[in-house]
Design brief:
A: alpha+beta, Uridine Diphospho-n-acetylenolpyruvylglucosamine Reductase, domain 3, Enolase-like, domain 1, 3 domains, 5-stranded antiparallel β-sheet, B: 165 residues, Ubiquitin-like (UB roll), 5-stranded mixed β-sheet, 5 strands
């Protein structure tokens, strides 16, 4: 049943300092809401447990992308549209630019934020495998100060994460060191826009000397919708590293992928289909990597 | 003065709708969609799914396309909203509205206001869109009648009118 707006409180303190002070005063009592593309959906369905919400939409400290020599820092309140419009994201972090373009339609891209995608913690979120592949770090903020944590390991189980009740994600940091890599991203879903993935992949790799026939020097592979959390595949990466690409290697990567994931049957797909597709995507990535110069 | 019980928790919220300043007394979690339809009587904006999937309730907020079913009233405070009622100038239809009529872009009409607002947003960003641009710009707006082709034709026609080559 639809929620009654009279039962909910929503305030907009405006600046970050006032927001983290509120979260510190009553930890766990206030649910932050940015563009509402997840929170308002739960609200509409009468399934939003929180009764007190604090707006973090348009908070200046959470907006924009800082471009530093070593890394870029994406404000947690950056929308998918902003990610798509930033040249540096398209050039240096194309896996994230692709994922931003797949997430929802234009209206949802104008409101959905990268920080929101992380805390919503859907295992099917399109942008999260890209963050795993780029080894993103998160800056978390509270009245106690800021701390910086790797995104890998941030999600500890289905919808569970290492975020204290008084903390917010302030920014997502990506190191600028992947311009020489092959970036491979694909989403397999019923439809390009507005359809949640059955399986999605973000992968990066580089051959030694950047030459065809060279061994794989460095590789990262991450998948969405195949486990309770977005998954990086270290076993598969280990199998690939240091080897020249051939059909047998792609086949071994495929087998190792299906062994590493725990897909389920749900409304969007079946475990069997997801497993087959995940293996195919990894094999296709390896083949493409082998063909890059 | 006592506040009537049904108004407790409501806030004065000011916003500009189709160029006119408006002040309404609403709950902060009221959906912008309901503020437009129920408080302001602007029933051109339609509710389809109510969960951000179908695009029927699309409006422009500060020039950006949004699903008004997913915008709490408080976040719309101080913004400029454009709805389908704000596109025509008196009896003069906008180029997009005229093109939708001519090309058969509207059938049952439920998706049409959202389609036109999404098209309006697209043409502002890309005045000379390719068919792929049009398809992408409207990918968040579902139509169960037309099969989409007449809608794409309508947008292309409006774009040609605005940019006589």
């Amino acid at each position: 049943m639809r929620s009654n707006p009279a039962d909910y409180e929503l305030i907009a303190p405006g600046r970050l300092q006032a927001i983290v002070a509120l979260l510190a005063n009553e930890p766990g009592q206030w649910l932050p809401i940015a563009g509402g593309t997840d929170v308002m959906v739960q609200y509409a369905a009468g399934k939003l447990p929180a009764r007190k919400l604090v707006s973090i939409w348009n908070v200046p400290e959470l907006r924009g992308i800082d471009i530093l020599p070593q890394e870029i820092r994406i404000g947690a309140g950056c929308t998918y549209t902003e990610l798509r419009e930033q040249e540096i994201v398209a050039h240096e972090f194309p896996l994230l630019a692709s994922a931003a373009g797949w997430t929802g339609g234009i209206a949802n891209q104008n409101r959905g934020t990268l920080g929101g995608n992380i805390v919503n913690a859907s295992p099917a979120a399109d942008s999260l495998p890209a963050l795993l592949a780029y080894e993103a770090e998160l800056i978390l903020v509270s009245v106690r100060g800021e701390r910086r944590v790797p995104y890998l390991g941030f999600h500890t189980g289905y919808k569970k994460m290492q975020l204290a009740p008084d903390e917010l994600i302030r920014a997502i940091c990506l190191r600028r060191r992947f311009s020489e890599y092959l970036h491979y991203a694909r989403k397999v879903g019923a439809r390009n826009a507005q359809a949640i993935s059955k399986v999605c992949i973000a992968a990066l790799g580089r051959l030694r000397g950047g030459a065809i026939g060279g061994e794989i020097e460095d590789v990262r592979i991450a998948l969405g919708s195949v486990a309770p959390v977005p998954l990086r595949l270290p076993e598969v990466e280990r199998i690939l590293t240091g080897k020249p690409v051939d059909r047998e290697l792609a086949q071994r990567a495929r087998t190792a992928t299906t062994a590493a994931i725990q897909p389920i049957d749900d409304i969007r797909s079946t475990a069997r289909y997801r497993s087959a597709v995940a293996g195919n995507l990894v094999a296709e990535f390896v083949a493409q990597l082998g063909a890059t110069a | 003065m006592t506040v009537p019980s049904e108004n407790r928790g409501k806030c004065e919220t000011s916003l500009a709708v189709n160029g006119k300043p408006k002040t309404v007394r609403v709950f902060p979690m009221e959906r912008l969609l309901d503020v437009l339809r129920h408080e302001l009587g602007l029933t051109g904006t339609k509710e389809g799914c109510g969960e951000g999937e179908c695009g029927s309730c699309s409006v422009l907020m500060n020039g950006e396309l949004v699903n008004s079913c997913l915008v709490p009233a408080l976040q719309a405070a101080g913004t400029e909203i454009t709805t389908i009622e704000g596109l025509a100038e008196g009896p003069q239809l906008s180029a997009l509205q005229a093109a939708f009529l001519e090309c058969g872009g509207a059938q049952c009409g439920i998706c049409t206001p959202g389609m036109i607002l999404a098209s309006c947003h697209l043409l502002k960003k890309k005045p000379d869109p390719t068919l792929d641009d049009i398809r992408e710009g409207l990918a968040g707006n579902l139509c169960r009648c037309t099969g989409y082709m007449q809608i794409f034709d309508s947008v292309a026609q409006a774009a040609r009118r605005r940019n006589p080559a």
